[in-house]
Amino acid sequence: METTNIGVFGPKLSGKTTLAMSLSRKWWRLRKRRSLVLDPNLDNWGEQAWVSDNEEKFWDSVWKTRDCLVIVDEASETINRDKGLISVFTRLRHQGHVFIVIGHSGINLLPIMREQLDTLYLFRTSAKAAALWAETFAQPGFRNAVDLGQFEFLWGTLYSAPVRMKLSLGRMG
Ligand SMILES: Nc1ncnc2c1ncn2[C@@H]1O[C@H](COP(=O)(O)OP(=O)(O)OP(=O)(O)O)[C@@H](O)[C@H]1O
Ligand SMILES: [Mg+2]
Questions:
Q1: Strands (E), 48-118
Q2: Which atom of ligand 1 is nearest to the CA of 168?
Q3: Ligand 1 atom index nearest CA of 104
Q4: Residue 158 is part of which domain span?
Q5: What confidence category does residue 2 fall into, taking pLDDT thresholds of 50, 70 and 90?
Q6: Tell me: the pLDDT tens digits for 30-52?
């Protein structure tokens, strides 16, 4: 299955940004795709990434380029229920972009946004949020996200049942 829209959800300090940084480096190394990152913290994402904390500039660059990994960190601050951003979920792939949205539970996204995701990295979350993702992906295994330990996550797609994983920082890069 082709990956186009990836969700990364979990509570504070669960390892979301660290995981997304690892994916950013991996997509550069394996597929020569650069990253465009909207990150209010302006963290260091590495040389493969262009990072901005200015939403207007960021979306401008996204719509002017093609074939990048587009990453929105702390989406709860920027995307949420902003209807103007539905097109990010539905149309970015037509520019060859792959999209990664990072947030806390995902409950605050519009249903149409959640339904566009095809790949999910779900860290420990509430029973309510876990049930919502299980339903959205038609993958009951996502309900097990309530039992995860620190830095553990479930990785799954619309067509593959979730697998429990943990990033080993020693093997990153
Ligand atoms: N797999 C891991 N093993 C060990 N430490 C980790 C792992 N993943 C992240 N960390 C560490 O945990 C801390 C929090 O990670 P990170 O910033 O990625 O979390 P976050 O979910 O993005 O947090 P926030 O919601 O505050 O943005 C960092 O110091 C990071 O180095
Ligand atoms: Mg973070």
A1: 49-52, 69-72, 98-103
A2: 1
A3: 25
A4: 135-168
A5: confident
A6: 999 999 999 999 999 999 999 99
What one-character-per-residue DSSP string does 128-141 give? Answer: HHHHHHHHHHT-GG
Please name every residue paired with 123 in a beta bridge, in sequence order, or none if there are none: 153
Structure tokens at 104: 């806390």
CATH code of the domain containing 23: 3.40.50.300
Instruction: Identify whether 126 is part of a domain.
Output: no
- Residue 147 to residue 77: CA distance in whole angstroms: 27
Instruction: Note whether 8 and 42 are within 8 A (CB).
Output: no
Confidence of residue 65 (pLDDT cuts 50, 70, 90): very high
Task: Say if residue 60 is in the same domain as residue 139.
Answer: no
Task: Choose among 142, 141, 140: nearest CA to 106.
Answer: 142
Say how far apart CA 100 and CA 119 lie, in whole Å: 9
Q: Is the model's pLDDT at 171 over the cut of 70? A: no
User: Mutation test of ligand 1: which of 8, 17, 165 has the most ligand atoms closer than 8 Å to its C-beta?
Assistant: 17
